[in-house]
Design brief:
InterPro entries: Cro/C1-type_HTH, Lambda_DNA-bd_dom_sf, MLTR_LBD. It comes from Streptomyces hokutonensis. Pfam families: HTH_31 (PF13560), MLTR_LBD (PF17765). This is Helix-turn-helix domain-containing protein. There is one protein chain. By secondary structure, this protein is of the alpha+beta class. It has two domains: about 5-90, 434 Repressor (Amino-terminal Domain); about 100-265, Beta-Lactamase (2-Layer Sandwich). The protein contains 13 helices and five strands. The protein has a five-stranded antiparallel β-sheet. Strand 3 and strand 4 (about 240-245) form a beta hairpin. Helix 3 crosses helix 4, helix 3 (about 40-45) packs across helix 5 (about 65-75) and helix 9 runs parallel beside helix 12. The longest helix has 19 residues, at about 170-185. It starts with a helix and ends with a strand.
């Protein structure tokens, strides 16, 4: 019997996946892992059961969510051709492009070049819905998911793999970010894209509890005086502390320029 194409693609991707490129993998699963990534590990990073992921890898029809399929793509690092085949076989059509902010067209070329060509620190620019407009190579070293066109809040708050990379996820990352999201949701309550971001975040049960929490901090921007910790690709289970510095460009007052600088490397032992 011929092996389904989805099975072949996903099994080969798992067998060849370099798990050192997955931030926080060793902290979550330990060192000395065999080559490749197991079904159990993919499922845990995607926030589903092994059986559910196994159904996908076996090519069984089911109501797989967009978030789950996209998570599998990132975890297994599927290239565009592999991702297109998997999506067409599972969904019957090509994957939709990531949402594009209308503010991207207003971004001056000189400003885009400043962001993308910055060499010293990680730099990125997002709009008021946290859709990323531009980023540099250093930003990808911290946040590889940016290459897939993901929204900052959706990734950090709703995608389970973020909780593997971001140390002390709830206190250091999720609570202050959720507070920011709630403020912007009130400010731009009639914005359709903002509502879509909020719906995506609230669709995750863990994130929804935080959205409804009464003890969130009163903050609308990341505080540079409060470092946050995370794992980096290729750096094993070593924790790194970073600082976020936020600024508002005069030419794009509804956007925020983010600069991420290393605070200190801290031992995980």
């Amino acid at each position: 019997m011929q092996t389904p194409i989805v099975t072949r693609i996903l099994q080969q991707a798992r067998a060849h996946r370099d798990t050192s490129d997955i931030p926080g993998f060793e902290a979550a699963f330990g060192t000395g892992q065999p080559a490749g990534i197991t079904q159990e590990q993919v499922a845990r990073l995607a926030g589903v059961s092994r059986r559910w992921y196994g159904n996908l890898e076996s090519g069984r029809p089911a109501n797989y969510s967009d978030a789950f399929l996209q998570a599998v793509r990132r975890i297994l690092d599927l290239n565009d051709e592999e991702w297109g085949i998997v999506h067409r076989v599972i969904r019957g059509h090509a994957p939709a492009a990531a949402p594009v902010s209308h503010l991207g067209a207003l971004l001056p070329d000189a400003f885009r070049a400043f962001v993308e060509e910055s060499r010293t620190w990680a730099v990125y620019l997002n709009d008021y819905r946290w859709d990323v407009l531009a980023y540099n190579a250093k930003a990808l070293e911290y946040f590889p998911w940016m290459q897939y066109g993901l929204n900052v809040m959706e990734w950090a708050l709703a995608w389970p793999e973020a909780r593997t990379q971001l140390v002390n996820w709830e206190e250091e990352w999720a609570k202050p970010m959720m507070a920011q999201l709630r403020v912007h949701a009130e400010e731009w309550r009639t914005d359709e894209r903002m509502r879509a971001v909020v719906e995506t975040v609230r669709a995750d049960p863990t994130a929804r509890k935080l959205w409804d929490a009464r003890d969130l901090p009163a903050i609308t921007h990341p505080a540079s005086a409060q470092p946050r910790r995370l794992y980096l690709a290729g750096r094993g289970d070593q924790e790194f502390a970073v600082r976020f510095m936020a600024g508002t460009p005069d030419e794009l007052p509804s956007c925020r320029l983010m600069v991420v600088t290393p605070a200190e490397a801290v031992s995980s032992n």
